[in-house]
Amino acid sequence: MNARSTVTPVRIAVTVMCLVWGSTWFVVREGLSEMQPFGSGGMRFFLAWLVMALIAPGIAAREGGGRPTWRLVAVMATGNFAISYGIVYWAEQTLPSGLTAVLWAVFPLMTAGVSQLQGTEARLHGAQWWGLVVGFVGVVLLFLTDVRSVGGDAVERGLVLLLSPLVSALCTAYIKRHGAHVSAALLNRSALLLGSLMLLAAALLFEGGISPPSTAKGALGVMYLAVFGTVLTFTLYFWVLRQASTVALSLIAYVTPAIALVVGASLGEETVTGWTLGGLAFVLMGCALVLRRPAGAGARA
What we know:
- There is one protein chain.
- The chain is mainly α.
- The chain is globular, with a radius of gyration of 19 Å.
- It contains 13 helices and no strands.
- Helix 3 runs antiparallel to helix 7 and helix 4 runs antiparallel to helix 11.
- The chain has helices at about 5-30, 35-65, 70-90, 95-105, 105-120, 125-150, 155-160, 165-180, 185-205, 215-245, 245-265, 275-290, 295-300.
């Protein structure tokens, strides 16, 4: 299959990922009305593992790649699933879903910063460095306005939430460096199991047990997050990663928070203010500057 013939499938895959991931923030917050955060996340990833256990061998046979080491599995399970998602679920007990998604949109900025410290990517130049500053201004603006207006412990939870994309960026950089020739399907399958067990163990320790959803709506929410928000999206993500440039994937970071705001405002009656849009604009502008190629980079590539 040549590059041109993959354009439409890639666009469809990116669109599906944006729509599904944009909706998951609201579904997570809705589920927290019936379940505790760690238990809810643990059930989601355990169900996702059950599905991946069935389909991962077939996907791995087509994509190629070797079996992941236990170190890679442990890094992904601990960082990308248990810690990162555990923080998101915990933070959404207070923070609106759309605002949580907007704050998490700093992930590309943190990824760029981590790559600079580790020397795994080309050095940033000129406007790219300004992108980090602009994105930081957007985050500060959101904390001074929307996060502060939520009240309670929203500011504290918002600050802890920023650790989620940071941990994810660190773990993703490690996996990119040491897992280039590993099957993504097998890595995801094993990491989902270990990550789910970590979250379920945290539920037993800190939440007094694992409480399943008490209504059909809650059960459907967990199933949606597991099948569509985890298995489908991560499978598409790694397929697109092999078919298209990182620019196509960067579109997800731009579109997802906007969709999350629309879903939260329309279905959850969450407030979207001018400060919300302004902060989002600064964050996304920063991402755009950081991901922008310096002059001549295309020719060199």
